[in-house]
Amino acid sequence: HEPVQTTVTLSPLQLQVVRCLCEPWLEGATLDQLPSNEEIAYRLGTPGATGTVKAALRRVYAKAGLTSGTPHAKRRALCRVARQQGWI
Fold it and tell me: Residue by residue, what is the 3-state secondary structure of the chain?
């Protein structure tokens, strides 16, 4: 049997956060050069909303099945999952 591919949907905010996170990587930076939550909040036009970015990322990690690992490792893994899922 083939594994069932489930489509995971993200909220508009979650998509924006993921796209901001992955943008430098998509433009040629390495996965070690991903923006911080503060930088993502700034790019979204909400410089004070670091907590909102953090909460959105936590929900996206859960949806992507990324439950273990360091925050940095999860961010790198999320970029790969985002590309596979078509979020970016």
Answer: CCCCCCCCCCCHHHHHHHHHHHHHHHCCCCCCCCCCHHHHHHHCCCCCCHHHHHHHHHHHHHHHCCCCCCHHHHHHHHHHHHHHHCCC
